Amino acid sequence: MTMNPDDQRLEFDQSLRMMRDRLVPKLPANIKRKVLPEIEKLEDLLVDTRPPKFAIVGRRGAGKSTLINAIFQDQVADVGSVTAETERASWHTYTDKTNETIMEVLDTRGFGEGASDRFQMSEERTWEEALANKYPDAILFLIKAKEVDSRIQEDIGQLKALQQQIKEKHDYVPPIVGIVTQVDELDPIYDHTPPFGDSKQRAIQQATAHLEKLLAKQFNDIAGVLPVCAYLAFENGRIVYDRRWNIHRLIDFLLEQLPNNT
Length: 262
What we know:
The protein is an alpha/beta fold. It has seven helices and eight strands; from the N terminus they run ααβαββαβαβαβββα. It is elongated, with a radius of gyration of 22 Å.
């Protein structure tokens, strides 16, 4: 019978603790000095690791839920085309083919999203609720490619507020990763299916560089800015149209921006 990942970690933990607590003390001092650091390395590698956590933020329509679905290749988040769909911030788990957790993603309400008669909780209260027991290793700030210079200072103000709330609650300042979404809508509009041509690539590079410049003026901890297209269409739970671009590069980049224990 194959053990699940949690049971495997528990067995590793018990074995390593037994070695460290019962066997190592009995070793000669010169051997103990060599063995103990190796056991500690194994504990860091096999036991004390955890999946990375990311928060996804941005205004309504930036593609937060769409990006989550693109990463998961499944409809794990509702996509609202007219009204705001996400009231409470919710954590989603990204697993591999063996069902082991690869990352956790916090999907939040859009910046300035939703009327008071539609949602009962304030935006700040939803953050507080979601951050009560855990916090993201990094914040993914999403903005549409056509809006990288539209009302962005208001968004940056809310981004700072979220980062500050995490700092006050958990004594940790998560780095910011800027994500330029819906790059397929940039000119030339006829070039809307990846891989994009040279003219579209130049427009994407300009939008990405502009967002990076704006964020760098306000934050000291910008990990990077990446452009993506995350569009997927589903029918009866199956992918029927896939226009994703740069998603794998984004996932690889995020996995590089992690604390040592992830």
